[in-house]
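Students often ask why we bother encoding 3D structure as a string. The short answer is that it lets us treat folding as translation between two languages. Here is a chain of 269 residues written in the first language.
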Amino acid sequence: MSGKSMGVIAAASLFLAAGVLFCLARPSRSLAGDSPLAGQNPTSNPAPAQANPSSETPPARTQDQNAIRNLYKPARAISGADLQFPLQTTADGVVVFSVSLGAGDEIKGISVLKDVPPFTAVAQHSLHNWKFAPASLNDRTEDSEMLVAFVFRHAVSIANPPPFTPIFPAKESGETRRGFVPPGILSIVYAGYPPSTIAMGAVVVQADVKPDGSTGDVSVVRDLEGGFVPLAIKTVKHWKFQAALRDGRPVPSKVAVAFIFSSRSLNPF
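And here it is in the second language, the structure alphabet:
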């Protein structure tokens, strides 16, 4: 057999051997490709995913906090007595009281937070004839405290109203973490006098103070015919408050405001 023939036979043998090896190797690669661990490092296989408790707990706590806050109802004024503008003065001013209420809705005490004679005495005398409802938690009434402001402004004024100093009923920092601290009054606006009446008397409205300090709804406690109520409601919505605290946490509260109007016919100017 010639050398050329032997070379051809050798090449064919090598080609056949390579084909056999390829066929033997292919099933193992197929099995590896079908395995769910194909292309992954067995040692780096992550553990089964677990729910993150920290991402689920806050909503549950928030709902609980909202439920507790919704069960708390602040003290409120139910009725207010009439009050006449003192004739012996030409001044204007705002008197602010803190009214302490017992769980049985009785007035336990009245503290003067802003004193403006001679308005303070007549306002405090009127306040004893008001009716209140105490605060409650889970429908159980409790001793509480409420702010009441009396705004005296002449029907016709020739001077700008006096400046208002903010009222902060909050006690010392340690005490603010216990019990109830009434809301603060940061700024006020005086109500105007209706143009089509000469009536006089008191209008009492009540502002809801939200836990963030903003003013919510304003309700009427005592009406006075002649267009006074819309002016009173509009005015109180421009007042600025600081939120009340209960055990150191902001809670909803209410502030009653009495606007005392003099009569144009009795105006001393």
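Translate back mentally: The longest strand covers residues 144-153. Keep this in mind for the problem set.
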